C-alpha cells in the first residue's frame, strides 16, 4: 500500500485541496487505511470523474480504490457479474461484450468505477426505461467505519443510504450487478433536429416509448424564436440482422478511437461566446433534419468525449462548472425560464444536454426523479457565474427540483433539505453508523451531510 501527499481536484479542476492519497491493493489494506485515516477522516475515490469536490478531503485521506479491480465471477447464462468496486465500466465492457452482455447503465464516460457508479447512483440515456445504476445492483460489500465488512442487499436502509450517498456510508469493496443482453456492439441510431425548446420537449416526450436511449444536445446560446433549439438522438442496441456481412464477423467487438490528449496548458479564453457560438451553429447545422437507422459504435454513441484524453483541459487553468438539475413533469415553465435565463446571459456552453427521467430510484440522495434534467458546462471563470447559479438553484428548489451532487461544487447548504427530502434520514443513519465521522469529504463538510 502506497501513500503520498498530493493536490486533488474533481474533473472540473476547481477548488483543489491537499490530501494524503492512499492506494490499497487488498481488502485488508483498505481496512487498514480506514483505521489510519486520522482526525480529518477519509473518502474513497475512483477514476476522479465527479466534477466537484465529492472525492476530495482537505487535510485528510483519500483512498484510491482503482487498485482493487478484479472481475471475480461472470454468470454468462443469467447475466450477472461480481466484481471489485475499483473495476471501471470500460473494463467491464471489454470483458462482457464478447459474452453478449453490456453494463445496464452508463453515463457519458466509461471511465468510472463500479464503486463510483453506486456512490453517485449514475444515470444514463436510458433512465426513462431502466432507471439509475442502483436499480441493477443486487448487493455489495461495504467496509464501514467500525472496520466491519457488511454484505448489503437491495431494499435495506443501508443500501438506500449508500446508493447516491457519495461514499459517506463506507468504502464499497465488491458489487454484484445484473447486466443487459445485447447481440452486437453497435447501436442503431435515429437523429432529428428540433427548432426550439417546446418542439424539443414534444419530440422527447413522444420518443419515450420508441427508444431505450434518448438524449438531446441543446444550443444554449440560441435566442429569440430559436431558444432551446436542439439535436435529438435516440437508439437501441443493434440486432445482428442489422449488420452487414463484414461487421457480422466480429459483431461484439468493442471499437474505440483515441485522439491526441489535450495539452496540459492551453491559452486562456478559448471558450468565448464567439467560439462556442460558432461551434454550436456548426453542430446544429451539420445534424440531419431526420435520419434513421444509422449504425454507430458503442463508444461513439455513449462516450464520444472519451476519445479525447483530458478534454477538460480545454477550459483552461480555471476549470469548468458542470451544473445539472432536474425539475418534475408539470414544471416545464421553470425549465423554460432557466433555459431563457442562461440563453440571455450568453453562457458559453457547448456540452449541454436535456433528458427525461423515469420513476425515482430508492436511494435517499439519489438524484433522478421523474422529470426533465438539463446538464450544462460553463467555464468557471465566467463573470457573474456564482450569482447566476445561485439564482438557478432557487428556481430549481422552488419548482421542487434538485441538483446533482456528483457534479456539484458550489451549492448552498440551506437549499439541500428542500431538494432531498430524505436528507434527515441519511444524516441520522450516518451518525449512527459513523459517529466519529471517519468518512468525510470536502462535499460533506460544505453541505453538512
Structure description:
This protein is an alpha+beta fold and 449 residues long. The protein contains 13 helices and 19 strands. An 8-stranded antiparallel sheet has the order 15-12-14-13-17-18-16-19. Strands 5-6-10-8-9 form a 5-stranded antiparallel sheet. A hairpin with a 5-residue loop joins strand 8 (137-143) and strand 9. It is globular, with a radius of gyration of 21 Å. The mean pLDDT is 95.
Q: Which term fits the overall shape?
A: globular
Rg over CA atoms = 21 Å
Class by alpha and beta content: alpha+beta
Measured by DSSP, the beta-strand proportion falls in 15-25%
Low-confidence region ranges? none
CA distance, first residue to last residue: 29 Å
Strand order in the sheet with the most strands: 15-12-14-13-17-18-16-19
Relevant terms:
449 residues, alpha+beta, eight-stranded antiparallel beta sheet, 13 helices, globular
Give a short overview.
With 449 residues, the protein is α+β, with helices and mostly antiparallel strands. Helix content is 25%, strand content 25%.
Lay out the secondary structure.
Elements (H helix, E strand, L loop, with lengths): L1 E7 L8 E7 L3 H9 L6 E4 L15 E4 L6 E5 L4 E5 L4 H8 L4 E2 L11 H6 L7 H4 L6 E7 L5 E5 L3 H6 L8 E8 L1 E2 L4 E9 L2 H11 L5 E6 L11 E8 L35 H14 L3 E8 H5 L17 E9 L3 H13 L8 E5 L13 E9 L5 H14 L3 E2 L12 H4 L3 H11 L8 H6 L2
Parallel strand pairs: 2-4, 3-4
Antiparallel strand pairs: 1-2, 5-6, 6-10, 7-11, 8-9, 8-10, 12-14, 12-15, 13-14, 13-17, 16-18, 16-19, 17-18
Amino acid at each position: 500500500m502506497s501513500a503520498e501527499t498530493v493536490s486533488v481536484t474533481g474533473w472540473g479542476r476547481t477548488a483543489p485541496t491537499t490530501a494524503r492519497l492512499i492506494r490499497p491493493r487488498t481488502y485488508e489494506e483498505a481496512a487498514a487505511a480506514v483505521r489510519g485515516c486520522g482526525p480529518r477522516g477519509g473518502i474513497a475515490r475512483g477514476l476522479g470523474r465527479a466534477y466537484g469536490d465529492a472525492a476530495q478531503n482537505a487535510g485528510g485521506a483519500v483512498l484510491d480504490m482503482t487498485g482493487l479491480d478484479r472481475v471475480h465471477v461472470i454468470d454468462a447464462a443469467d447475466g450477472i457479474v461480481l466484481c471489485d468496486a475499483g473495476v471501471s465500466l470500460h473494463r467491464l465492457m471489454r470483458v462482457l461484450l464478447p459474452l453478449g452482455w453490456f453494463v445496464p447503465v452508463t453515463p457519458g464516460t466509461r471511465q468510472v468505477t463500479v464503486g463510483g457508479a453506486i456512490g453517485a447512483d449514475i444515470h444514463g440515456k436510458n433512465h426513462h426505461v431502466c432507471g439509475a445504476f442502483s436499480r441493477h445492483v443486487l448487493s455489495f460489500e461495504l467496509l464501514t467505519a467500525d472496520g466491519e465488512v457488511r454484505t448489503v442487499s437491495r431494499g435495506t436502509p443501508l443500501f438506500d443510504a449508500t446508493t447516491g450517498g457519495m461514499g459517506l456510508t463506507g468504502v464499497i469493496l465488491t458489487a454484484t450487478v445484473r447486466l443487459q443482453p445485447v447481440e452486437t456492439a453497435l447501436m442503431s441510431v435515429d437523429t432529428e433536429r428540433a427548432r426550439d425548446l417546446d418542439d424539443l420537449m414534444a419530440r422527447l416526450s413522444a420518443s419515450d416509448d420508441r427508444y431505450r436511449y434518448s438524449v438531446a444536445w441543446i444550443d444554449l446560446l440560441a435566442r429569440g424564436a430559436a431558444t432551446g433549439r436542439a439535436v435529438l438522438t435516440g437508439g437501441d442496441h443493434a440486432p445482428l440482422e442489422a449488420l452487414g456481412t463484414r461487421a457480422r464477423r466480429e459483431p461484439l467487438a468493442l471499437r474505440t478511437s483515441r485522439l491526441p490528449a489535450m495539452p496540459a496548458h492551453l491559452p486562456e479564453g478559448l471558450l468565448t461566446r464567439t467560439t462556442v457560438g460558432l461551434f454550436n451553429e456548426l453542430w446544429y447545422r451539420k445534424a440531419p433534419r431526420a435520419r434513421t437507422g444509422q449504425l454507430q459504435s458503442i463508444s461513439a454513441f455513449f462516450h464520444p468525449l472519451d476519445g479525447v484524453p483530458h478534454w477538460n483541459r480545454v477550459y483552461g487553468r480555471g476549470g469548468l462548472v458542470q451544473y445539472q438539475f432536474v425539475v418534475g413533469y408539470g414544471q416545464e415553465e421553470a425549465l423554460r425560464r432557466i433555459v431563457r435565463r442562461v440563453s440571455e446571459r450568453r453562457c458559453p456552453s457547448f456540452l449541454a444536454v436535456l433528458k427525461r427521467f423515469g420513476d425515482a430510484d430508492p436511494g435517499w440522495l439519489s438524484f433522478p426523479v421523474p422529470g426533465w434534467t438539463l446538464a450544462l458546462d460553463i467555464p468557471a471563470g465566467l463573470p457573474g457565474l456564482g450569482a447566476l447559479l445561485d439564482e438557478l438553484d432557487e428556481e430549481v428548489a422552488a419548482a421542487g427540483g434538485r441538483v446533482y451532487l456528483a457534479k456539484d461544487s458550489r451549492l448552498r447548504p440551506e437549499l439541500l433539505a428542500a431538494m432531498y427530502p430524505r436528507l434527515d434520514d441519511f444524516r441520522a443513519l450516518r451518525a449512527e453508523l459513523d459517529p466519529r465521522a471517519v468518512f468525510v469529504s470536502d462535499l460533506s463538510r460544505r453541505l453538512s451531510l
